[in-house]
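Researcher: I'd like a structural prediction for the single chain below. Treat it as a standalone chain; there are no partners to consider.
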Amino acid sequence: MNLLEKIKQFPTEPGIYLFYNKNKELIYIGKATSLRNRVQSYFRGPRSSRPIEQMMHEVMDIKIKQTDSVLEAVILEANYIKKFLPKYNVDGKDDKSWNYVVVSDDLFPRVYTVRQHELSNQQSQQIQQTQQYKYIFGPYPGLKTREMMKLLNRLFFISTCKPFSTQATARPCLYRQIGQCLGVCTGEISSREYKSKVILPLVTFLRGGKKKLVKSLEIKMNREAKQENFEEAGRLRNQIGTLSRIHDIALLNDSFFNDVKTSPAGTASSQSTSPKRRGDIRDSGDGRSQVEDVIERIKERVKIGERALITTLTKRMAEDLSDYLKEQKIKVEYLHSDIKTIERIDIITKLRKGEIDVIVGVNLLREGLDIPEVSLVAILDADKEGFLRNETSLVQTIGRAARNVNGQVVMYADEMTKSIDRAVSETKRRREIQLAYNKEHNITPKTIEKNIRNILEEFGLTSTSVKNTKTKINRRGGSILNLDIMGDARPLKEIIKEKEFKMREAATKLEFELAAILRDEVRELKAREKTGKSQKSVKSIKSKVKKSK
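Model: Treating it as a single chain, here is the predicted structure.
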């Protein structure tokens, strides 16, 4: 089989290609977004430079190694260049700029990129060198270093903030507030933990050990789930998912696509891998762009007297994002399972009255929010598949904006997942049915009008008393705390057993957000059960004391 016929059999997937001469010597290694198209481009039309022309006259055989993503192709290319030193790579014939990823030897190691001449200068002056490198990875020809670091930061939660100091205020950075920093800035993670959770996985990945890394993360995820640390299990699940579907064509410089010129019929070109956008689905980029975009949208709604809901994946993210929005002069409160029912009612009433403009929540479906004043629903990290981001949850969350004529839903995602695609399609189908019905019956859509009941006043309470006291509210002998078990006549033990079963079931399905909610409910119920037993015990002791007298 000649080379052209062999190339036709190459896959259109990312990977690296290896050129060999007649002596079976490896003379060049390159990376590709599409192996077939990339290698074919060398055999079409005029070459862009004399070295490439010369190299192609020497090529007698071509081999390939397919990868799951462009990033892995970049890493594999670097490892092969370092190992085999092909002459058309190392002799400077490959005119693309070489970059390296380095990891410092600090207490909380920094990760950044350097160019080859910077690295050479520092290595030649090691005695005077103030910055020691723990690891050096590369070279990476034709790489956009900024895009590389954005992608690595997102994949591995690399900290870019200053480590927490006892002399400073523990002020969380923006990335901590949106769940992309593990708490280096606030002292929530030790140096040892940071190296274990961030640096070690990064190093394993950059050494080409993605499969080994994913297996290790899966073991850790299962261990955290067994210990009911569902927040960390959820983070690991999301990291595994992100590693398995890396979108990274933006890593490559334009020169990568232009160094082999083709005829007009050629196919070597750059293609965008941003998710297809239907409606208001946004490419999230890095975490900062999600937050900056949603802030601008919130401000637009506030100007016209409307409200917004933001849904996040974790309680910590909801709290930190709420704090950050307050710093931006936005009136906001957060909701999650730690907020008691009476406080939730107070927060929702405030939103409807306009005393606050935004609620940030984890599971807004659980709150049963039906607020006509809300015209914007923002779903952060919409592509993180799971209980809170499956098709059903997305459709129902989208419905939170359906009560307002100006209703809009924005999903922030790096890719169009099946759940997003189906949710958007289902919403579009329902909308078309509604529009047809409206047209047939001459109905003009209007925002639903709904009276604002102040339930607190019905119990003789104020917002201040809710915050400052642990008031037990009884009406007709009942409590409005934990409304989900109101009217359930079963013993607490039975309710706890049922919720524990559902919690384990959710964890088995990797629905860690739901498992965390159920875990918190179980803990609260057990605390109640314990309090009830202690009260009975005290009564029993008092009774015995009275009898002894």
